[in-house]
UniProtKB/TrEMBL annotation:
This is SEC-C motif domain protein. It comes from Candidatus Promineifilum breve. Signal peptide: none annotated. It holds the Pfam family SEC-C. Residues 252-288 are annotated as: Disordered. It comes from the Bacteria.
Amino acid sequence: MDRPGRNEPCYCGSGKKYKQCHMVADLAADREGRAWADAARDLRLAIFEFADDARFEDEAGPAAARYWNEYYSAETLPLMSPGEAERFLDWFAFDYTLPSAGERVVDIYRKEQGENLSLQQRELLAQWADGAPLGGYELTGYERQTLRLKEFLSGEMIDVFEPGGHGNAPLGSIILGRPVRVQDQYEFFSLPAYIPPEEIADLHNTLTAAAGDGATDNEALRRHNVLYIHHALEQAKLAGRPPVTRLDPHHAAEGVQQRHRHQRVRIKGPAGQTENAPQLVQAHRKAI
């Protein structure tokens, strides 16, 4: 909604000037919204950097091999593009149980760093840690930057704010991401990817066969959600596209700068702008 000028009539129809009516409340809401956006941005970055710490390096390699279906491993982790690294660290932090600890990276972060967080960040962290795993969401519609999505297995509808809008994804695509709540709306925790409609194929049967009776249960989905990624990789290969960046000769020919392990992670800020990242990473969402 476009707000009136200070001395114009208030939008509520009271007949008062805006400055004498809703302006103070609107400015307070703006400040609160910025505070929540800043808290979410800083918490995202902290979780990414915590998951990317050297202490987890021995377990990140096997986890990457599982997530990427052997297209990346401990030796090739530095060859992930910034977007690939962001999506992998998202899954590694929230959905992967560390064999050595028997718990997730986000649970360790919560125990070790929770007391150092602001009240807003503690609330966000609790919601995110206990929230839905990475999943697939059919794009059924959109209005500007709000995506109307249907969870692929349960059919549950959800609206997600995505600063880049639907990008190149046509209606019917399966958006791959983790919706997390930030104040009064859902956002994706990391840069999402998508599976085009023509490449969905037997994905539903694959997922339900793996998860069994718990196909819509969060814990079952957390154990099997890598199947979304494996399916997307296989479909990309069948379509003649390089399934991952390191196998793309176009990127290799351009000499695209690759991310080094433990280099500062590039993530979206509160307005959807990616910190310290090329424009291509900010705006482009591709089929994996």
